[in-house]
Amino acid sequence: METYSHLFALLLIFFFVLHSPNVQAFTGTYGVNYGRIADNLPPPESVVTLLKAAKIKNIRIYDADHSVLKAFKNSGIEIVVGIGNEFLRDMSVYEDRAMDWIKENVQPYLPETHIRGIAVGNEVLGHDDGVETSEALLGAVKNVYSAVNRLRLTNLIQISSPHSQGVFANSFPPSSCIFKESVVQYMKPLLEFFSQINSPFFINAYPFLAYISDPDHIDINYALFQKNPGILDSKTNLHYDNMFDAQVDAAYAALEAAGYEKMEVIVSETGWASRGDANEIGASLKNARTYNNNLKKKLAKKKGTPLRPKTPVKAYVFALFNENLKPGPTSERNFGLFKPDGSISYDIGFTGLKPASSSASSLLSLKEFRAVPFSMVLATCGSLLLLILTS
Fold first, then answer.
1. What residue range is the signal peptide (predicted)?
2. Residue 128 to residues 133, 229, 303, Cα–Cα distance (Å)
3. Which of the residues 123, 264, 280, 323 is marked catalytic?
4. How do residues 177-202 score in pLDDT, each as one tens digit?
5. Is 123 a catalytic site residue?
6. Eight-state DSSP code of residue 224
7. Alpha carbon 60 to chain centroid, angstroms
8. How far apart are CA 148 and CA 155, in angstroms?
9. Are 124 and 165 a contacting pair, CB within 8 Å?
10. Coil, strand, or helix at residue 368?
């Protein structure tokens, strides 16, 4: 009797997995990573104002900070929250840890705060020192999904896990890309589960990092979406005029080689540093503006890549702000589209909370303006009108 009960339970889980809805966690094609490793950023309420003014509809945060989730209530902005790598081992063993995390950090904020995705870990695979975490990733993903399913939230929330390009054995030309042999044992079962629950493949794609690693052999214009001869992939006979498309198609090629050609690729991080150390050739304000401006234009066209022309590319740009407490090289602290005071780092068509150049006649931030009493605004306007009429 126990055998039949166990079999029935397995069939029931299999049924729910096969019939899980295809959640759309991304509105349009453009999103931004809202990192907060800094001590000088504006409050989350002002960030909501900033994002609305910029018409940015998708953000990704690296935790589930309650002040952020409260601030985004009724904003309409789609949010992907993150479960840190440090939680994965416990969550892989104990499903109640995953359930407790979701009950504390996700469920209380629904539906007013549009939490649409949970990123389980970040760049877990492909690192030589992360065997224990790599082994825990699949179990954590399954337990998080199981908890979401038990809470009947699978129609709202998509489960994913972003990867670095360190999971690939090679990526040039794009069609030759495959997963590293050391990664395959973890990646294959993870992809199998994601294919069952209709989750995308999240990849952090940085032409910037590729360029600074080999500036002598990579055309800067190819990395920046500028005019250049491009490359021809002799296997597919496809031409690439920018590295971003090539990196995305390399991920598609690796998925196809692994047997998951129907899985969608979403770029979970991409960007360009506006400053860097002496050895970080190419990290400059001009190049950051060029890359992010051209990327923004490309994504607005809602087109695909040479290998997947009918699948519009979706990407989260890294990052919303410069983060002054991030460790590592100078570039790590200078990926922001905006400065900590809310002004733009460079002009790509966004409006900051404050003007880019400070002066005695600086405009009020949107938050400050909204705090001015309406009666004072009317009185000021009336005084100005009277002055004009009597002059």
1. 1-25
2. 11, 36, 36
3. 123
4. 999 999 999 999 999 999 999 999 99
5. yes
6. T
7. 5
8. 9
9. no
10. helix
Q: Which of 78, 264, 269, 323 is flagged as catalytic?
A: 269
Cα–Cα–Cα angle for 219, 224, 229, nearest 5°? 45
**Which residue carries 């001590």 as its tokens?**
39
269 in active site: yes
Token readout for 330 is: 């100078």
Q: Where are the alpha helices (DSSP H) in 237-354?
A: 243-258, 285-300
Ordered domains of the chain (ranges, CATH): 19-360 (3.20.20.80)
Give the other-Cβ count within 10 Å of 361's Cβ: 6
Confidence (pLDDT) at 18: 40
Please give the sequence-ordered ranges of beta strands (E in DSSP) within the chain, or none if there are none: 30-33, 58-60, 78-83, 115-120, 158-160, 168-170, 178-179, 201-204, 231-233, 238-240, 265-270, 315-318
Contacts of 209 (CB under 8 A, 6+ apart): 165
Burial class (CB in 10 A: 0-12, 13-18, 19+), 184: middle
* pLDDT of amino acid 351: 87
Q: Which tokens hold the place of 287?
A: 């190049």
